[in-house]
Design a protein that fits this description.
The complex is a heterodimer of chains A (about 375) and B (about 500). Chain A has about 375 residues and is an alpha+beta fold. Chain A folds into 2 domains: about 5-185, 2-Layer Sandwich (Uridine Diphospho-n-acetylenolpyruvylglucosamine Reductase, domain 3); about 190-270 and about 275-330. Chain A has 12 helices and 18 strands. In chain A, the strands form 4 sheets. In chain A, strands 14-11-13-12-16-17-15-18 form an 8-stranded antiparallel sheet, sandwiched between helices. In chain A, strands 1-4-5-9-7-8 form a 6-stranded antiparallel sheet. With about 500 residues, chain B is of the alpha+beta class. Chain B has 5 domains: about 15-115, Uridine Diphospho-n-acetylenolpyruvylglucosamine Reductase, domain 2 (2-Layer Sandwich); about 125-240, Uridine Diphospho-n-acetylenolpyruvylglucosamine Reductase, domain 3 (2-Layer Sandwich), CATH 3.30.465; about 245-355, Alpha-Beta Plaits; about 360-450, Alpha-Beta Plaits; about 455-500, no CATH class. Helices cover about 35% and strands about 20% of the residues of chain B. Chain B contains 17 helices and 19 strands. In chain B, helix 14 runs parallel beside helix 15 and helix 15 packs across helix 17. The chains are: A alpha+beta (about 375), B alpha+beta (about 500). Chain A: One of its GO terms (molecular function) is FAD binding. Chain A: Its EC number is 1.1.99.14. Chain A: This is Glycolate oxidase subunit GlcE. Chain A: InterPro entries: FAD-bd_PCMH, FAD-bd_PCMH-like_sf, FAD-bd_PCMH_sub2, FAD-linked_Oxase-like_C, Oxid_FAD_bind_N.
């Protein structure tokens, strides 16, 4: 029941290209010359991370194609440069999906870039993150060695979990070549409920419901309305709908709402003002912050706009068990991610050196010294 | 997942003894080390006499045993830190140990190393109802977390068969799974934050109380690192709502292939069961003799399928699954809706290891994973090898996630049988790798599967794993010699993958 790339829809085999060898040579040469590389998939997420001095472009966009897809085994193996759109279309054909509902941030988005950034969408608190979905990877380390960790099976505890370590590392530890991901069946039925609510109650409700056996698949609060998405079998969704109450959004409008939220096209995200992301313990009450806060992930992910006192914001996030990221815009030459404690930073620097001793892979994109 | 071991977790049965090291006499250095440990901890927290050390000489893999230099039992993080710092000053290695239920020798003592038991760090610090988390010390038993959370309608999902005894710190070290991991994930999917002490006693706070944390995902790296990268002194786990309703189907099949096909059919229908377990005829007979769960003795294979969710959903699902099972040749199907029957059906599966243990003086438990579609082929080869070696094999299979546990029956007292069982086991694991799986799904590498790691990883990959270890523990003093084989060992074994006819690291020291 294993579907090889050649058996998939015809356009796959035409465009499937394995560029591992070319990419390996490029990294080996860069390593020999200590030449920094800037890794690029589709270029849809160049806004993210720190601004770094230009390195030689290492383009993964051509290294694409689905290598192995076994719907009944719930996994897919593909090259990192495969477009996220094409991947999701292929999964949808088999009635499946990526559990973490990744944002694309542009039609050129690749699966490799998505995992390197570690981006997850609205379903994340209820179905796991990008990292949770990873089963295995083939990577190129900073010496240009092709290494394989993990595999295509759900359970695999042989060796350290290097493939999940790659997620969110922004390419600073290795170039992602191939990834194996866990996939899930698409839910039979989805309903979005909306109702006006104050922020204190909204956060309480989202967390109270998350502690009940309900088929939640997304939650958001825009400052005025609480949005709750339920996904599962028809009967389970109907039962939960009756229990939670609220107005049901028409399906097309609901789908558009969650896509706009995920892709940051919702009105909250418009304009050039800096965008901050706070990740906190989900039940954290509304934070004393000026301006509007957009809340997702049952309270665990909170968005803010405008120039902010970074130190104060980070302290506030840390007090509530989390961290703050300058997600888009603002000054990207300084640190955009939450500062690490000195022992943690030192450990991560040693880890970086363990993978990329000459610091050629996207160095400085995550932190100035990584 | 450390399965319940046939031998008591901490008392090693004498019949399985392979070697009994003579205990070294006290050198001046050792005397100073012991004095410092005793000064730093309470008087009863340092065990040194052979009779006190004996209960710690092995973990659940009782065939491998060794007496440690001493056993220390600190009661808090500062005690753990003191042990690590004293050992660093003396250049002595440290082997961390939770409940000792692991099945791969990961907590087996090392003769000149201090065995650091985390068993006395056993407090549940806080259960946060609103955020649905539990903050616990590493020695807390897995099941104790769910028991404490239960009044709030919450539980901790990973449930290794040894959950009544195994500790959460050990679960983190092994990335334990359980029968429900297809739907609810492994330990790595259910952890939020760890407080870790490095080999030098430095504190690292890894992860956060939020859903992610800045920098590299050390939470993933630390989980399953078998005590080689750091010692967990506290962890925050995610709690889930207890499902509204649970039921179990038991289906009997006249062939293993039919059972495997019905598993594929269930998943193809878009159903993710909470648990999906398969047993073959010998395992069925053993379990039935042992716990009388009412399994059909004439079946070639049985499938246990647990569904959970809202009652309205289960009503539909159970009919769907029943139809699929029948269509794929299931004979009798029993459905257990009440807790008592459900537990009885599971009891046979959960007792499968000790049940098989009654069939022969010894058994060797394998833990490979395979893509499920290769199951029939792999079982066919195992049957053929079983005849070749003259050793019986019972198969227990986590069918949902491809984790196969062949149990090779042997008698350690019969000339050559242990060796034959080990060789047989190695061939099974090599086959698992060859069909695209792994040498260990949940029991870990420990000491037991070091050689098999040489088959799964090439030299460059192993060297990368060693460099990770070096980044955390440059002196190599935490659980040395476990989990990742030296390149030298693999080269001597002749099993290492060699790409393009040469070792990728000709210049590298063969450690």
């Amino acid at each position: 029941m294993c579907i090889m790339a050649s058996c998939l829809s015809p356009n796959w085999s035409v465009f499937d290209i394995d560029q591992s060898q070319t990419l390996q040579v490029a990294v080996q040469e860069a390593h020999a010359r200590s030449q920094p590389l800037a890794i690029r998939g589709g270029g849809s997420k160049t806004f993210y991370g720190r601004q770094t001095p230009a390195g030689d472009l290492l383009d993964l966009g051509g290294h694409r194609g689905i290598i192995d897809y076994a719907p009944n085994e719930l996994f897919i193996t593909l090259r990192a440069g495969t477009s996220l759109q094409a991947l999701e279309a292929q999964l949808a054909e088999a009635g499946q999906m990526l559990p973490f509902e990744p944002p694309h941030f542009g039609p050129a988005a690749t699966i490799g870039g998505t995992l390197a950034c570690g981006f997850s969408g609205p379903r994340r608190p209820y179905a796991g993150s990008a990292r949770d979905t990873v089963l295995g990877m083939r990577i190129l380390n900073g010496q240009g060695e092709i290494l394989r960790f993990g595999g295509q099976v759900m359970k695999n505890v042989a060796g350290y979990d290097v493939s999940r370590l790659m997620v969110g590392a922004l390419g600073t530890l290795g170039v992602l070549l191939e990834v194996s991901l866990k996939v899930l069946p698409r839910p039979d039925s989805t309903v979005t409920l909306v109702r006006p609510m104050d922020p204190v109650t909204a956060i309480q409700r989202m967390n109270h419901w998350a502690g009940q056996p309900l088929p939640l698949s997304a939650t958001a609060y825009d400052g005025e309305h609480l949005y709750v998405r339920l996904s599962g079998t028809g009967s389970a969704v109907r039962a939960a709908q009756t229990r939670l109450g609220g107005e049901r959004l028409p399906d097309a409008e609901a789908a558009a709402f969650w896509v706009a939220l995920r892709e940051q096209r919702h009105v909250f995200f418009q304009g050039d003002a800096p965008l901050w992301r706070l990740a906190v313990a989900p039940a954290t009450p509304p934070l004393p912050l000026a301006g509007q806060t957009l809340i997702e992930w049952g309270g665990g992910q909170r968005w803010l706009r405008g120039a902010r006192d970074a130190t104060a914001l980070r302290q506030l996030a840390a007090e509530h068990g989390g961290h703050a990221t300058l997600f888009r815009g603002g000054d990207r030459r300084g640190e955009v991610f939450h500062p690490l404690t000195p022992p943690l930073l030192a450990m991560q620097q040693r880890l970086k050196a363990a993978f990329d001793p000459r610091a050629i892979l996207n160095s400085g994109r995550l932190y100035a010294t990584l | 997942m450390p399965e319940v071991s046939p031998a008591p977790a901490v008392a090693c049965a004498a019949t399985r003894r392979r070697k009994v090291p003579t205990h070294m006499s006290a050198s001046p250095d050792r005397t100073a080390l012991l004095a410092e440990l005793q000064a730093a901890l309470s008087a009863d927290a340092v065990l040194r006499g052979a009779e006190d050390l004996r209960p710690y000489e092995c973990d659940g893999l009782s065939v491998l045993r060794e007496l440690p230099l001493c056993v220390v039992l600190p009661v808090d993080r500062e005690g753990v830190r003191a042990v690590l710092q004293i050992c660093q000053r003396h250049g002595v290695a440290v082997v961390p140990r939770g409940a000792g239920t692991g099945l791969s020798g990961g907590a087996r003592p090392i003769r000149d190393a201090v065995l650091l038991s985390l068993a006395r760090l056993h407090h549940i610090i806080a259960i946060d109802r609103e955020n649905r988390t539990a903050r616990v010390q590493p020695g807390v038993r897995n099941l104790a977390i769910s028991e404490a959370a239960r009044p709030l309608g919450l539980y901790y999902a990973p449930d290794p068969s040894s959950q009544i005894a195994c500790s959460i710190g050990g679960n983190v070290a092994e990335n334990s799974g359980g029968v429900h991991c297809l739907k609810y994930g492994l330990t790595v999917h259910n952890l939020l934050e760890l407080d870790v002490l490095t080999a030098t006693g430095e504190t690292l706070r890894i992860g956060s109380q939020a859903l992610d944390s800045p920098g590299y995902d050390l939470l993933a790296l630390m989980t399953g690192s078998e005590g080689l990268l750091g010692v967990v002194t506290e962890c925050t786990v995610r709690l889930l709502p207890v499902p509204e309703h649970v039921l179990v189907l038991l289906a009997a099949f006249s062939s293993v292939e039919a059972a495997a096909e019905s598993v594929s059919a269930i998943i193809a229908a878009g159903i993710i069961p909470a648990g999906l377990e398969m047993m073959d005829r010998l395992a069925i007979e053993a379990a039935e003799d042992f716990v009388h769960a009412g399994y059909p003795r004439d079946a070639a294979a049985i499938l246990l399928c647990e569904l959970d969710g809202p009652a309205v959903e289960l009503e539909e699902r159970v009919r769907e699954v029943e139809t699929l099972l029948q269509r794929h040749g299931a004979g009798a199907i029993r459905i257990a809706e009440d807790a008592a029957t459900r537990l009885l059906l599971w009891k046979g599966r959960k007792a499968a290891f000790p049940a098989v243990g009654r069939l022969a003086p010894d058994y060797y438990c394998m833990d490979g994973t395979i893509p499920r579609q290769r199951l029939a082929e792999v079982l066919g080869r195992i049957t053929a090898w079983s005849a070749e070696y003259g050793l019986r094999v019972a198969n227990v299979f986590h069918a949902g996630d491809g984790n196969l546990h062949p149990l090779i029956l042997y008698d350690a007292n019969a000339e050559g049988q242990l060796h034959a069982a080990e060789e047989f086991g190695r061939r099974i694991l090599e086959l698992c790798v060859a069909v695209g799986g792994s040498v260990t799904g949940e029991h870990g590498v420990g000491v037991e599967k070091l050689d098999s790691m040489c088959v799964q990883f090439n030299a460059a990959e192993l060297a990368q794993l060693h460099r990770i270890k070096h980044a955390f523990d440059p002196e190599g003093r935490l659980n040395p010699g476990k989990a990742v084989p030296s390149l030298h060992r693999c080269a001597e074994l002749g099993a290492m993958h060699v790409h393009h006819g040469q070792l990728p690291f000709p210049e590298l020291e063969r450690f």
